[in-house]
Amino acid sequence: MSVSQTGPQNGFEIKLAPTPRGSRLVSLGAYRPRRVVDNTEICTFIESSDEWIQQRSGIAERRWAADDETLVGMAEAASRQALAGAGLTGEDIDLVLLATMTSFSTTPTAANLLQAALGTRGGAVELNSACAGFTYALALADQAIRAGNARNVLVVGAERITDIMNFSDRTTMFLFGDGAGAVVVSAADEPGIGPVAWGSWGEQSEALGVLPLLSDVARGLATERPLLFQKGQSVFRWAVTEMPKTAAKALELAGLKAEQLAAFVPHQANIRIIDAMTKYMKLPEHVVVADDLRHTGNTSAASVPLAMEQVLSSGRATPGDLALLVGFGGGLSHAAQVVTLPTLGPAGASRLPDPAPLAS
Amino acid sequence: MALSEQEVLAGLAELIHDETGLPQDQVALDKSFTDDLDIDSLSMMTVVVNAEERFGVKIPDDSVKDLKTVRDAVDFIVKQG
């Protein structure tokens, strides 16, 4: 027997909002911290060399945030560029989704603070799926719109990885950078975001993490600050064996073939992972492969929108082009989808908020 | 069917060549992956992933660090194959 708790026969009916057919990425914004850190400077922290770092990772330089480049401030700057490009203001946004793994306020969340800074009046929630956070948030934005719960959603990936970076770990500290990227996602008659191929691999949680746990610090079981660690070989193996399957699934779910793609925008973890993925995926040569990490490093949840910005601003891809996004990392977890690329918001609109006036 | 040492060595030499461009005849049993063949940790993992598929064996992450020489890898694969 089917169970029906609601319906006219029970004297009430839950009304659902009208639903659009799809959603799409309308406009993109980015914030890259002012300070550029090249590999020569990295070698003042760890024993290494520019050649070794580039050979192992493809990374030549990255950006590190200064004190005034806060998580919320960078998110706000990127968001303002995206909003300006979409011709919208904060009031038009029904939902703010902020993906990050470097927010240190359990409540209020950074999403609440971003919402207040932008003056949006809808919902706001922070979510954390580490480096897959942006593509997870994008999938949830698409679903919120197609369920009729929002017309315009602001999806943001922002990180200050340097806040959790182990500056003396020569196997990881050269990899990471800070930054933020934001996209306005809006209802659309023609779908511009495909179904998501997502998954969680908590069985491999020991491959990447942040320790000690804050709960251990709270109980006095640990005193040192939480820092990021990574078993590079394990993450590499998982990424190069599983992510090509995830990419193929995202294409299949959208009813598309790799030949139809203009761009491939994977999480910018390491050029060696990206190269191996494209090889295993047998990606056609005409597909532009984002390699923003060469000048940005691995910015975790910010990496996919920053890499989209890079392929667009360099002219290697144009708005409306079909792109495959694959977010993957800590958890381990992943989320991938096909999208049509957005336009770039005006670069001048990506500005940090003015410093708060001193209390008199 | 059991794999012979020669088959596995020849197969590994091909996989290493594909990954690093190293001439296949340089891949000998007594060579160290890191010191002699200059294979870094990520290339090693690529060779391991491809070897699993080629030889139908499982090489767990924890075992990879014990594979210091080509002989270590050949023995590991032959034992499972």
UniProtKB/TrEMBL annotation, chain B:
Subcellular location: Cytoplasm
UniProt keyword annotations, A-Z: Cytoplasm, Fatty acid biosynthesis, Fatty acid metabolism, Lipid biosynthesis, Lipid metabolism, Phosphopantetheine, Phosphoprotein
Pathway(s) annotated for this protein in UniProt: Lipid metabolism; fatty acid biosynthesis
Domain Carrier: 1-81
A Pfam entry, by short name: PP-binding
Domain EAL: 1-81
Keyword Lipid biosynthesis: yes
Primary localization class, coarse: cytoplasm
Residues annotated with O-(pantetheine 4'-phosphoryl)serine modification: 41
PTM info: 4'-phosphopantetheine is transferred from CoA to a specific serine of apo-ACP by AcpS. This modification is essential for activity because fatty acids are bound in thioester linkage to the sulfhydryl of the prosthetic group.
Job of this protein: Carrier of the growing fatty acid chain in fatty acid biosynthesis.
Family of this protein: Belongs to the acyl carrier protein (ACP) family.
NCBIfam families: PRK00982.1-1, PRK00982.1-4
Identification of the protein by name: Acyl carrier protein
Natural source organism: Motilibacter deserti
Gene encoding the protein: acpP
